Amino acid sequence: GAVVSQHPSWVICKSGTSVKIECRSLDFQATTMFWYRQFPKQSLMLMATSNEGSKATYEQGVEKDKFLINHASLTLSTLTVTSAHPEDSSFYICSARLPRYPETQYFGPGTRLLVL
Amino acid sequence: DAKTTQPNSMESNEEEPVHLPCNHSTISGTDYIHWYRQLPSQGPEYVIHGLTSNVNNRMASLAIAEDRKSSTLILHRATLRDAAVYYCILRGPTGANNLFFGTGTRLTVIP
């Protein structure tokens, strides 16, 4: 089956620092990946759509200069939280689609970020 | 994307069937009905999807009402590992390929 990994699985950082989260499709190529954020006891909120070789598409209200997305290859997308603040503490989850079966998304295990 | 309505929570005894309902009265003719579930502290997992006909796979069955305004996810024998939040999501066939998650139904399985 399609496997998506994320690294790191959890990270603690100081306020003002930047954190990079990687999302990899392990056994397939993904031209499109998605980044979600989930606060405690809430549902997933789509942040942006990551397109290989082009700029990401951000959802309304998501600051593109704060959440930098790079999709440099068909198996890797990265999300960098710049100048992180405690309110950025959340569970960040990526997903990818199989090109042949675009109706299904495969999710990574998530990255828990805690900003002190 | 059309809106879905699900109960906030449900309980089931272990090894009994579970029927998780979803209302989607504003569904359009081309919207697919998708179900994902999210186990604690994990990313969501695809469960099943359908358009008009009932669907079965190794994880679950999906029963779709004739008017398509509601659907039911059926777990034939609940196990403790099925305890999760179940999301019912509508998606068009083309264009927007992202998923908009509602609040879902938190399923508790009682041993």
Write out key terms for the chains shown.
heterodimer; A: 116 residues; mainly beta; seven-stranded mixed β-sheet; four-stranded antiparallel β-sheet; 56% strand; globular; B: 111 residues; five-stranded mixed β-sheet
What's the helix count of chain A?
0
Largest chain-chain contact? Answer: A-B, 25 and 21 residues
Query: What coarse outline of chain A follows from CA principal-axis ratios?
Result: globular
How many whole angstroms does the radius of gyration of chain A measure? 13 Å
What proportion strand of chain A? over 45%
Instruction: Give the distance, in angstroms, between the N- and C-terminal Cα atoms of chain B.
Output: 37 Å
Number of strands of chain A: 11
**Major pleated sheet of chain A:** 7 strands, mixed
Q: Strand fraction band of chain B? A: over 45%
pLDDT < 50 runs, ≥5 residues of chain B: none
The parts of chain A where pLDDT drops under 50 for at least 5 residues are none
Give the N-to-C terminal Cα separation of chain A.
37 Å
Structural class of chain B: mainly beta
Number of strands of chain B: 9
Report the radius of gyration of chain B as a whole number of Å: 13 Å
Oligomer: heterodimer
Going across the major beta sheet of chain B, what is the strand order?
A: 1-9-8-3-4
Fold and architecture overview:
The complex is a heterodimer of chains A (116) and B (111). Chain A has 116 residues and is mostly beta strands. In chain A, 0% of the residues lie in helices and 56% in strands. Chain A is globular. The mean pLDDT of chain A is 92. Chain B is mainly β and 111 residues long. Chain B has no helices and nine strands. The radius of gyration of chain B is 13 Å and the shape is globular.
